[in-house]
Amino acid sequence: MSDSIQTIPVRTVPGYTVSIGPGLLTNCGQRLREVLSPCRMAVIADSTVGPLYAPTVTASLTAAGFSVCSYLFPAGETHKNLTTLSEILEFLAREHLTRSDCVVALGGGVAGDMAGFAAAVYLRGIRCVQLPTTLLAAVDSSVGGKTAIDLAAGKNLAGAFLQPAAVLCDTDCLGTLPPDVFADGAAEAIKTGVLCDESLFALFEDGTLSADPAEVIARCVAYKAGVVERDEKEQNERRLLNLGHTVGHAIEKCSGYAIPHGHAVAAGLAVIARAAEALGWTEQPIAARIAACLTKNGLPIGTDYAAEALTQAALSDKKRAGESITLVIPRRIGECELRKLPVSELLSVIRAGLEA
Question: Which of 8, 30, 36, 141 shows its CA 20 to 30 Å from the CA of 302?
Answer without folding.
Answer: 141
